[in-house]
Amino acid sequence: MRVITDFPRKVREIENLWIPMPDGIKLAARVWLPEDADADPVPAILEYLPYRKRDGTVERDALTHPYFAGHGYAGVRVDMRGSGDSEGLCKGEYLKQEQDDCLAVIEWLARQPWCSGSVGMIGISWGGFNGLQVAARRPPALKAVISLCSTDDRYNDDVHYLGGAMMCDNLMWGTTAWAIAMTPPDPLIVGDRWRDLWEQRLNGNGIWMQDWFEHQRRDDFYKHGSICEDYADVEIPVYAVGGWADGYPNPIFRMLENLPGPRKGLIGPWGHKYPHFAMPGPRMGFLQECLRWWDQYLKGIDTGIADEPMLRAWIQDPARPAAIYDERPGRWVAEPSWPGPGVGQKVLNLAPHVLSEAKGDNAILEISSPQTAGLSSGAWCGYGVMPTLPVDQRSEEGNALIFETAPLTEAVEILGFPEFEVKLASDKPVALLSATLSQVFADGAASRVSYGILNLSHRNGDLEIEPLVPGQAETVRIKLRCCGQRFEAGERIRLALATSHWPIVFPTAEQATLSIHCGSSRLILPVRAPQKLDDTLGAFLGPESASPMEQEVLAKGDGFQRSVSTDQVTGETVYQVINDGGTVRHPHTGMTLSARHVDRFTIHPDDPNTAVGTCTWEKSYGRGDWQARVSVKATVRALRDVWRIETHITAHDRNEVVVDRSEVKEYPRDLN
Questions:
Q1: Phi, psi at 599, each rounded to 5°
Q2: Pairing relation of β-strands 142-148 and 238-243?
Q3: CA 420 → CA 117, 403, 434, 495, 523, distances in Å?
Q4: Separation CA 322–CA 387 (nearest Å)
Q5: Are the C-beta atoms of residues 664 and 643 closer than 8 Å to each other?
Q6: What's the rounded Cα separation, in Å, for the pair 446 and 319?
Q7: pLDDT tens digits for range 228-284
Q8: Measured in whole angstroms, how far is the alpha carbon of residue 88 from the centre of its chain?
Q9: Which of 57, 105, 325, 366 is 20 to 30 A from residue 272's alpha carbon, by CA?
Q10: Does the pLDDT at position 384 exceed 90?
Q11: How many C-beta atoms lie closer than 10 Å to residue 20's C-beta?
Q12: pLDDT tens digit sequence for 392-421
């Protein structure tokens, strides 16, 4: 990545300033802006997060916000209430209080002498979510949004539920968020009151995942903050960005289809990172692309971006299965709108173990997968820089019903959502259906292309949940995750059907057997023919950034580990991820940090009620006499009738125990 140090405008940084809220709470902000902004005011670009501006996102901020400032903007990074160096409490994600505070921040920014009165919001993940949510509140000064790796649907396209199935990320992200919410502010910013502020968080921020287990249906809890409830609320321009390896590509297509105002989509091969430093590559000049968007909608400069195709997407060429890629080969394509006029359908019918365009076979096949089916799936959300992508799907062949085409006689490209329509019956009132689409190479290696999971009690939608009638056949439709993929001639297309998908989702309370009626079932692929528009695309510029932040590695950790092991005596299988970042020091603040986390999931293949997930985080912060550390541990047990959550937290101020607290809560299982 090219590092830029000489910008059109000289940059000054305000390490911390306080933004007052209407109730007297103050939020901490870090600001980069042109030195002459008081004389020549500039638009502000806001990134609003709970991830600690002082240390949590500091490396990314150093690459991004000074770059914007050097090109005539004020880059503003704000810690949300109850996080980082800000005052108050943060009692959950995406609450109305969070949005209200952001409205106050935007109004405050627009009044500053160095601000032109126009504000944009940018953010990835949480910051991408709240950019959309705040846009729906229509603050007058907010003129445009760039939202990366985010969602329009908090219930069914986030970390909580997938097709109505309880996600294991409910625990993994829940523990991560809990750990972040329990960390202390920096005494160099807040002074001697840091301990009081920390204790307020430790005793008041709560354990947010408990809300997610309490709310197992699509109720008002999830409708709040889901812009899909009324897309018309978001009128300002939205640039939606994501990657195929990320957990959030689906909402991009829905927002392009449904948002009423100017919108644009960009989907690369990337994981959950900004595209100028994301993996898998190729990386692109994302910050330059942002400037074109900001110049168009915050400064009124015609950059041409408004006249370009609505969607640019990376069609991936075949790549053999691997847990990590430096780059994914492929090419950029474009659609003028979505649904794209260049996208049609290819229907493949089911016969025993066969996918073809011929009429399906009337055979009925049964599947009752071991609870360990899905262990090759990798992480629900890939971060790219860590080896968490799905591995060879051949290991799943004994766990699923396999349907496969003959070797293709010509290449096939797909873009959008594959769908599977199936007639089935279950012997249990609650069951899961997992459908995995793979690309099979001549030697049998299978790379996952897409997958979908449906809790069949949600077969009529998330608002009409009802148990199955055992033995009664019904036709259901499952939408797989969107993708952009090329299949070459000689390769095969595979569909694998299973009744579990561990550890992406927890199993249902009883092990079910599904009967698949082949003759009434079909796979529908969104095929795309090459378009003339593809040949008119200009190449993206190369990646650029401001200068990276310096840091010293004081102690190397164990790094990243991911493993699966099976006890050959008991049959218990363990899936474990360890990520130990060691200890680093940030010279610009003098802060020393360490972080280590472990995710461990165990299950017996014959018993869904043995499913247990345990996640731990250990974090420490220090500088001289200031030494604070926090450790959290959360366990979820998928028992027959209840979800049991066991939590424990300890926090230390040097050797003094500040908090040592355990808790057990149970939540009745609600058709999941």
A1: -115, 125
A2: parallel
A3: 49, 12, 10, 9, 5
A4: 8
A5: no
A6: 10
A7: 999 999 999 999 999 999 999 999 999 999 999 999 999 999 999 999 999 999 999
A8: 27
A9: 105
A10: no
A11: 12
A12: 999 999 999 999 999 999 999 999 999 999
Element (H, E) at 133: helix 126-135
pTM for this entry: 0.97
Chain position carrying tokens 């907010």: 142
In degrees rounded to 5, what are phi and psi of residue 99? -70, -45
| Count, residues in the chain | 672
Task: Read off φ and ψ for residue 518, nearest 5 degrees.
Answer: -60, -45
Q: What is the mean pLDDT of residues 490-504?
A: 98
CA torsion, ordered 383, 387, 389, 390, to nearest 10 deg: -160
- Mean pLDDT, the chain, rounded, equals 97
Distance CA 228, CA 234 (A): 10
Residue pair 59/1 in contact (Cβ under 8 Å)? The answer is no
* 434: Cβ contacts below 8 Å, ≥ 6 apart: 369, 373, 374, 400, 451, 452, 453, 496, 497, 498, 499, 500, 501
From 439, 416, 437, select the one nearest 333 (Cα to Cα).
Answer: 416
Residue ranges of alpha helices (H) inside 259-399 are: 286-298
The DSSP annotation for 529-596 comes to ---GGGGGPPPPPPPEESPPPP-EEEE---EEEEEEEE-TTT--EEEEEEEEEEEEEETTTTEEEEEE
Per DSSP, helices labelled H in 269-420 are: 286-298
* Pick from 541, 547, 550: nearest CA to 70: 547
Torsion 639-223-482-354 (CA) sign: positive
Cβ neighbours for 601, distance < 8 A, ≥ 6 positions apart = 168, 502, 503, 574, 575, 576, 611, 612, 613, 614
What token pair was written down for 486?
A: 């090329």
